Structure formats: C-alpha cells, structure tokens
C-alpha cells in the first residue's frame, strides 16, 4: 500500500506524504546578462564585481625629508660659507684683512646652493648656504670699495696731494 499518488512515469516519487519535495531544490542562477536579484545587504558591490576602495591619492614625501622620516643632513660647504662670511665682516674692522675671505664665502655659498638643489631633498642647509652667499656679496662689495679707496689714496699721495709745502 502506498501513501501517496502513484508516479505515472514509473520513476520514484520525490515528494513526501505532505506534498513537499524530499530534497531541497537548488536556486537557479539568473540568466546571463540579467540583473542580480535584489538583496537587502547595505553597501554590497554589484553582482560579480570585486570590492573596490575609494580612490586615495598616493602618499608624497614632503620636500626635505628622507624616506626614514629624518631631516636631511646639512651641506658642510653651506655652513662653512656662512661662517666665513660672518667672520669676514666681523674682521673687517681689523684694517680690512677679514674682507679677503668674502669672495671665498660668495663662491662656496653658490656652489653649496647648486649642490643642495641637485640633491632633490637629500641634502639640507640651503638657508646656511644662502646666508653665506649674501654675506659674501656684501663683503666682496666692501672689499672692492676698500681697494678703490686705497688706490685713490696711493694716487693722491704720489701726486703730492698731501705735501705741507702747498699750504
């Protein structure tokens, strides 16, 4: 005796006595190109698409810092040009002897600024080099004026401008 209706095709009946299938049915995938079924999960990517993060601008290293986050090493030539520039202006009072170092400060400061600019941030101390360059310019101008004054005094002395007999 059977509890359910007979299968007219002769196969095994796959329903249980309560009218429900005895094995769970697999959901059929949507046809190719059809939109995916609506799902109630927030912020879900479209069907079949990988998760994408919003665009973030890549990190750019600030100018003047090494990759390890340390400040770049100062260029020694820039520091030397600043020190020579200061010393030359201070020693200017000692009969102008200190001004002989001013052209050296000017040249060293310019070379150091070029070297720092070419290093693309791995060398620091541009302010020192610039200070030495400016002090070298000032000292060189004062040196040229001092040399011109000495030349004028020598010419005046050889022409007899300082003789007492003319008075």
Automatic annotation (TrEMBL):
Region of interest (Disordered), ranges: 1-70
Pfam family, one: DUF4190
Comp. bias intervals (Low complexity): 40-70
Bias-annotated ranges (Pro residues): 24-39
Chain ranges passing through the membrane: 79-107, 128-157
Residue stretches making up the DUF4190 domain: 77-146
Keywords: Membrane, Transmembrane, Transmembrane helix
Annotated InterPro entries: DUF4190 (IPR025241)
Record's keyword annotation contains Disulfide bond: no
Signal sequence, start to end: none
Protein name: DUF4190 domain-containing protein
Organism: Nocardioides mangrovi
